[in-house]
Fold:
Amino acid sequence: MNDKLDLTLNINGRDHAVRVESRKTLVDTIRDDCGLTGTHIGCEHGFCGACTVIVGGEAVRACLMFAVQAQGKPIRTVEGLAKNGVLHPLQRAFMTHHGLQCGFCTPGFLMLTASALEKNPHITDEELIEVLSSNLCRCTGYQGIIRAVHAARDEMRPPLPEVVEAPPAEIDPSHETAQDEAPAEPEMLGR
Ligand code: FES
Ligand code: FES
Structure:
């Protein structure tokens, strides 16, 4: 039985028409059928995060998702991070702060943290550690990755709005007089 499906996947703003089996994973489709090999495959079981891409604004494990499930949603891969030849702040920060060694895990970390920073540009250090804990790196160690993501966050985040203290309220003399008046008699209130 031929259960191949014709799909159109929108990846990094460009449509890719593919014919794949309904059981084909998103990561295999991105790599084999769309020619975008920047997304890596590690464990294929959802543990390592090497295959992380952003689908419909959410960071997902592309080895745990079928390609057919991603149709109709914008997909972003590491190839789409740089714009007009200019590296994304996260990419620059990973280079500057030694956030990679062999680079195998790097695309997954970049997409994971890009999604987290877009959702919350003011994410705290503790929250970032929590986010990063979902992906594995087998060679760099995590200190460089953490430093890189902190640096990118600090570069990317918009300033918090200034807190302007409200001036002290002016006392309305007529209001004071009204409060000083004796309470209305019960019969005046219809009781
Ligand atoms: S390859 Fe997808 S989580 Fe490891
Ligand atoms: S840099 Fe080698 S696995 Fe992370």
In short: The two ends are 85 Å apart (CA to CA). The domain at 81-158 is CATH 1.10.150.120 (DNA polymerase; domain 1). The longest strand covers residues 4-11. Residues 142-156 form the longest helix (15 residues).
